[in-house]
Specification:
- The relative contact order is 0.09.
- β2 and β3 form a beta hairpin.
- The chain is of the alpha+beta class and about 350 residues long.
- Helices cover about 60% and strands about 10% of the residues.
């Protein structure tokens, strides 16, 4: 798979970038001052100033006079305020890092925390960003291998269903037809019912095989496959409209398969869980991308945790660097939106 090759070609290990290599040096090219030297310098200035005053003409009376007490108090307040400002500025990047770590999700790549602040904090944030990039690359590579193996297994099962079970049921159906021509009239109705049950089972086997291995996708392309998918669900009690243009931009086979599987999973979730009676598949061209929208008029996702279906869609989107969102629709229901970069749009 092309997406798998891109992911595997990324460097997995290496030296972590230091803060100055991440564009965090000052405008004059100097490295940021560390938190240690900021606090040490501030305290040193305060102590040197206090020592200079004690060795100079300034004296402290016994008992301490009011104006002398005010001077000492002002110096103490200035020193404490300076320490507070330095610590606040130094620890703010670490608080941002803590929030980013608490909300990080490998299936939802997002913005990285800004590499800023004292050199210690900047190096720590840069190290975290590099670690997160590596973990996401490894997660995507592992997901690519797993999904590729899953597709191979789907094809194998579909082939066995079609070649083995399908042929067996076809033979049974032919045998029942011969029996129906020979049995007495009072038993013919029961044989006819057996024929109908066998024929329904054969149709179901064929439908499952088509869902496991979308042959129309390989033979006729993505647009025809999505239209056939909408028609298939329309026959099972869910009215599905489709708006799929035929003049799509160039897409890799992996991108077409991801778009098809996400549409399939979205409609499956709609049929099983949303209590919807209408749904729609829309595929449209965007600058440098193709966007798939699966929308229904059901009950929506609410506060329910994401299940295996949505997680699987996110895994597939991650393979292509695509963006996937699952959100409430404008009139209720659920919108599943997948935006896939095209071959000419870059990533």
């Amino acid at each position: 798979m092309g997406a798998m090759t891109d992911i595997r070609d990324r460097p997995r290990k290496g030296r972590l970038p230091r803060a100055e290599s991440c564009g965090q040096s000052g405008e004059d090219g100097k490295r940021p001052v560390s938190l240690f030297w900021r606090i040490f310098s501030l305290n040193a200035v305060g102590l040197v100033a206090a020592t200079a005053l004690l060795l100079g003409p300034v004296t402290v009376s016994t008992p301490v006079l009011p104006h002398e007490a005010l001077i000492l108090l002002a110096g103490l307040v200035a020193l404490l305020a300076g320490n507070a400002v330095v610590l606040r500025l130094g620890l703010t990047p670490l608080r941002r890092l803590g929030r980013a770590m608490a909300t990080a999700d490998l299936l939802r790549p997002g913005a990285r925390p800004e590499v800023a602040g004292p050199s210690e904090a900047a190096e720590l944030i840069a190290t975290y960003n590099t670690m997160l990039d590596r973990l996401q690359a490894e997660r995507a590579a592992g997901a690519a291998r797993a999904l590729h193996a899953q597709e191979r297994e789907r094809h194998r099962v579909a082939r066995e269903l079609h070649d083995e079970v399908g042929q067996t049921l076809t033979a049974v159906l032919l045998q029942l037809k011969r029996v129906a021509d020979q049995v007495p009239g009072e038993l013919r109705a029961e044989v006819t019912l057996s024929q109908e049950a066998t024929r329904a089972g054969l149709d179901e086997i064929r439908r499952i095989a088509r869902r496991l291995r979308p042959g129309v996708l390989e033979e006729l392309g993505l647009a025809s496959a999505l239209r056939a998918l909408a028609t298939e669900f329309d026959h099972h009690g869910l009215a599905v409209r489709h708006d799929v243009p035929g003049d799509l931009p160039p897409l890799t086979p992996e991108a077409e398969l991801v778009l098809y599987r996400v549409a399939q999973e979205g409609l499956t979730n709609t049929a099983r869980h949303s209590s919807a009676d209408h749904a729609g598949i829309t595929l449209r061209k965007l600058p440098g991308a193709v966007e798939l929208l699966v929308r229904d008029n059901g009950t929506g996702v609410g506060d329910a945790p994401e299940g295996a279906g949505i997680s699987g869609m996110r895994e597939r989107a991650l393979l292509l660097g695509a963006g996937l969102s699952v959100a409430p629709g404008p009139d209720g229901g659920t919108d599943v939106r997948l935006r896939v970069p095209t071959a000419t749009g870059g990533r």
